[in-house]
Amino acid sequence: MPQAYWIAHVHVTDEEAYGRYAKLAGPAIAKHGGKFLARGGRYTWLEGNEKSRNVVAVFPSLEEAEACYHGPDYQEALSHARGASERDLMIVEAFEE
Questions:
Q1: Which domain holds residue 68?
Q2: Entry's Gene3D superfamilies (predicted)?
Q3: How far apart are CA 81 and CA 95, in angstroms?
Q4: Closest CA to 53 of 84, 97, 93
């Protein structure tokens, strides 16, 4: 089963509330086998609408990444990000040769 990547582009509008999100989101993601590959580091924006925070996490499968997003732990975390950020989030299945 191919891995999946959770890719988020975020513009934070309320640092305090978003900090609460980040504190809860990490354990929720780990609970589903997710591991951060990039989280708010340096980046070069080349096209489209720039957002200053970029996150990439890898999960064991697309299904596990979706289960994380819809699960109660992540939804609790997400309640702090709503209204505290503008976000684009997608899950992309990895390519297998």
A1: 4-93
A2: 3.30.70.100
A3: 30
A4: 84
